[in-house]
Amino acid sequence: MDKKQTKAAAAHEKTSAGKPEETSKAEKTSAAEKPSVEEEKPKDDAQKALEQAQEELKKQKELLLRTAAEYDNYRKRTEREKTAVYADATSAAVVEFLPVADNLERALEQKDCSAEDLRKGVEMVNSQLKSALQKLGVMEMGEVGEVFNPDLHNAVSHVDDENAGENTIAQVFQKGYKIGDKVVRHAMVQVAN
């Protein structure tokens, strides 16, 4: 039995000694076909960087679209608000002038009235009109004796007058009006000296 065991052990050593060589050849062949760990790492890093860049691009695109939509909504909203403010301002102005219009209609409905009554009525309506303008912040400008200002007055003629000062208004042909610092209508005047 000793001889049998010795022969079997020797045969086993030959078989196992041959296998490691075959395995190492197979490993060498498969190692040549597969990229090394160092070569895979840069490809993975590049792929991750590309995916991150694409994700960031997607986020920036969404942000741009949202911003553009918000701007469009803002533009439309401000346009509506401008229209509403204009309509409200116009409405407020009309409300102030409606009593004046009503009184003019009443004056015209009078069939039998004297010139004196008509004059009183026109004076009352004129007073009411000035009051309405004052409530709206409209101020008259262009009085005789004021210094001529080309920003406020429109000189349509010139006269030499010894009684008037230099560059003063001698006569007003049409009153001017302003709201705050904004001139609504320039006063048409005659300038002296």
UniProtKB/TrEMBL annotation:
Compartments (UniProt record): Cytoplasm
Keywords: Chaperone, Cytoplasm, Stress response
One Pfam family hit: GrpE
Sequence ranges of Basic and acidic residues compositional bias: 1-48
InterPro entries recorded: GrpE, GrpE_CC, GrpE_head
Region: Disordered, residue numbers: 1-55
The keyword Chaperone belongs to this UniProt entry's keyword annotation: yes
Keyword Cytoplasm: yes
Quaternary context: Homodimer.
Assigned protein family: Belongs to the GrpE family.
NCBIfam families tied to this protein: PRK14140.1 (NF010738), PRK14160.1 (NF010757)
Function in brief: Participates actively in the response to hyperosmotic and heat shock by preventing the aggregation of stress-denatured proteins, in association with DnaK and GrpE. It is the nucleotide exchange factor for DnaK and may function as a thermosensor. Unfolded proteins bind initially to DnaJ; upon interaction with the DnaJ-bound protein, DnaK hydrolyzes its bound ATP, resulting in the formation of a stable complex. GrpE releases ADP from DnaK; ATP binding to DnaK triggers the release of the substrate protein, thus completing the reaction cycle.
Protein name stated in the entry: Protein GrpE
